[in-house]
Amino acid sequence: MRIGVVIAGCALACAALVASAAGPKPAHAELKNAQGAKIGAAKFTSTANGVKVSVKVSQLAPGDHGIHIHTVGKCEAPGFTTAGGHFNPTSAHHGAKNAQQPHPHLGDLENLRVGQNGKASATFTISGATLADGQNSLFHEGGTALVIHAKADDLMSDPSGNSGDRIACGVIER
Fold first, then answer.
1. How far, in Å, CA of 93 to CA of 84, rounded?
2. Most Cβ neighbours (<10 Å): which of 33, 58, 99, 150?
3. How far apart are CA 51 and CA 126, in angstroms?
4. Parallel, antiparallel or unpaired: strands 166-171 and 145-149
5. pLDDT band, residue 122 (cuts 50/70/90)
């Protein structure tokens, strides 16, 4: 009997160790437009350098669209202003092409290129962000959201790259 309890205890400890070694659980966001219709989804996974974001959307106007991580995990239509500003725990400047240092901030992603069929699929890496605990966590108090904008991000203008209205939003969840 004691041996069985010891073996079961060891098995549970080993399972917990393996689970913790695997890193933080992946996350996801269901993207909805201003009318509340689901237009896509995003998956967030931990990498050695940060967080990988894989996005797949449809029903958008063709062309480039700004896409960012916003600092509040709330997506109230139609304007999605409840998502707050861009996720910027390090107080960096907006955009990879911004002349001021440091840049870009953690909420910055490259533009999302939507095809003539209204669909897009893209993968981005947020260097320095994490799904674990910490200052750069996408799961800080209040959470975060993924927001798609109406226009292309110019990748240099503070605070948001002149990317226009917010047209889709999804709360990032575990």
1. 16
2. 33
3. 5
4. antiparallel
5. very high
DSSP 10: H
Q: Residues 6 or more apart from 101 whose CB is under 8 A from it?
A: 93
Strands 145-149 and 38-46: unpaired
pLDDT exceeding 70 applies to what percent of the chain? 87
Give me 133's structure tokens.
Answer: 């605990």
Task: Label residues 134-151 b or e (16+ Cβ within 10 Å = b).
Answer: eebbbbbeebbbbbbbeb
User: Does the pLDDT of residue 82 top 90, yes or no?
Assistant: yes
Helix (H, G, I), strand (E, B) or coil at 149: strand
The per-residue pLDDT for 24 is 79
Beta bridge partners of 27: 44
Q: Compute the average pLDDT of residues 149-173.
A: 91
Indicate the residue type of 18. V
d(CA 61, CA 34): 14
Give all domains of the chain, ordered by start, each with its CATH number.
24-171 (2.60.40.200)
Task: Give residue 136's identity as a one-letter amino acid code.
Answer: N
Closest to 66 (Cα-Cα) out of 157, 172, 173: 157
Strands 166-171 and 27-33, sheet pairing: antiparallel
Residue given tokens 């709360």 in the structure block: 171
Residue 52, amino acid: K
